[in-house]
Specification:
Layout: H1 2-10, H2 12-42, E1 54-55, H3 66-69, H4 71-75, H5 96-99, E2 105-109, E3 117-121, E4 144-148
Antiparallel strand pairs: 1-2, 2-3, 3-4
Length: 155
């Protein structure tokens, strides 16, 4: 216990970043579980449009009404609220490919309603997306975590 307290005192920013990263992964799992419940009831996933990404906060570069795209998860009782990034959608400035990018946060995409992908895009902190991480996005290997249905890995 004492060692844990000393580590937290030595690097509290890292501890807060780790807690936010754990929350991001939980949020993605919560959205994915709600999407699976939604498709069971409705027969398809909410459609964002062909090649359209929507930020779940409905703000930022991909603010295409993300809450509206996933609103059925709320009205269907699958989620109480649409999660947003715990750092208020601020980019991960540690990663150079994200530093000048104003696209970050939780992004959702479903071209036809038969598949989906949800990303924590450019928000994982302290360069934590590793090659062995099971949530590492196959299309954005150093900047994002994702959960996706079969057929959507390449989004």
């Amino acid at each position: 216990i004492l060692a844990g307290a000393i580590i937290a005192m030595i690097n509290p920013d890292r501890q807060f970043a780790n807690a936010r990263n754990a929350q991001r992964k939980k949020d993605l799992r919560d959205i994915a579980n709600a999407l699976e419940a939604y498709v069971t009831v409705n027969g398809s996933y909410p459609v964002s449009g062909a090649s359209v990404w929507c930020n779940t906060s409905a703000t930022g570069a991909y603010g295409c009404g993300g809450n509206n795209r996933l609103g059925g998860l709320l009205t269907g009782g699958h989620l109480k609220k649409i999660p947003t990034d715990p750092k208020n959608n601020l980019p991960n400035l540690f990663n150079p490919s994200c530093a000048s990018n104003n696209t970050y946060g939780y992004l959702y995409r479903s071209d036809t309603g038969t598949e989906y992908k949800i990303l924590a895009y450019c928000t994982p902190e302290v360069n934590i997306v590793t090659s062995t991480d099971p949530m590492k996005d196959p299309a954005r290997t150093t900047t994002s975590w994702s959960i996706y249905s079969p057929g959507a890995s390449g989004y």
